[in-house]
Amino acid sequence: MESVIEANNKFTVDLHKALKNDQNFTSKNLFYSPSSLSIALAMTYMGAKGDTAVQMALALHWKAIPQEQLNSEEKQYLHALQETNEQGNELLVANRLFAQKGFSLVQEFFVEGTQKYYEAEIAMVDYQKDAEGARKEVNGWVEEKTKQKIKNLIPEGVFNSRTRLTLVNAIYFQGFWQSQFKKEATFPQQFFVSKDEKVEVQMMHLAANFKHIKDSGELACQVLELPYQGKDLSMLIFLPRDTYGLAN
What family is reported (predicted)? Predict the structure, then answer.
């Protein structure tokens, strides 16, 4: 999986730079899954040709990876994610294509390929005559796969009679800490939203041994690793050294 993982890490950094400079996300919380986007776009890439395929390969750092190797490694990557389901953790990744009834898809390569490498089934809906019904079906599938955490993914008005294919990737994660926080060790403290705003929030506390580093160089932050049970999954927290150092 080395090639796909390296490409995904580069794509993650590029994506974060682009999103954090987007006016739509200024001063807002930003939560997204680079892996989810990469997996969905890898399926899209199977149906891409010409300049579209070239541009996708550049943006996702797949230029040096042959198509067959890319799909094979993506399959291994998906399998590795699913294998972390132990010790009470639950990481679910689901892919599905919703195509217009009667719309012709290349069976031999695209349909069979998305099923073989990405376990993506194809559902037929009718965007032309019942766009709202198609929207409800897609949203219902997403709700089911994310344990009702993601609702109304496709808002009203997105689908219309010109829609032909919707490719959906859903990721759900529920994990338990290797070292549990005790409820009685949670109490209110000040959280600094910005230089001009601070709020009181409930903060958890725990004394235990964790991987931790202080970077006094370019990052100017502390990095803490909080492992989940099983130790195959971790949360990494980057805390700026300065109270208002997040922007830097």
Answer: Belongs to the serpin family.
The pTM assigned to this predicted structure is: 0.82
* C-alpha dist (Å) from residue 213 to 13, 135, 192: 21, 46, 22
Please choose, from the candidates 159, 117, 121, 161, the residue with its C-alpha nearest in 3D space to the C-alpha of residue 139.
Answer: 159
Kindly provide the b/e burial profile for residues 157-196, where b requires at least 16 CB atoms within 10 angstroms of the residue's own CB: eebeeebeebbbbbbbbebeebeeeeeeeeeeeeeeeeee
Work out whether strand 165-174 and strand 234-240 pair parallel, antiparallel, or are unpaired.
unpaired
Tokens of 222: 């502390």
Q: How many CB atoms lie within 10 A of CB 215?
A: 12
Q: Taking Cα atoms as reference points, which of 7, 66, 72, 73 lies closest to residue 37?
A: 7
Contacts of 78 (CB under 8 A, 6+ apart): 39, 93, 118, 119
Rg of the chain in Å (alpha carbons): 21
Nearest partner of 99 among 142, 128, 56, judged by Cα:
128
Tell whether the torsion through CA atoms of 41, 42, 48 and 52 is positive or negative.
positive
Dihedrals φ, ψ of 140, to 5°? -65, -40
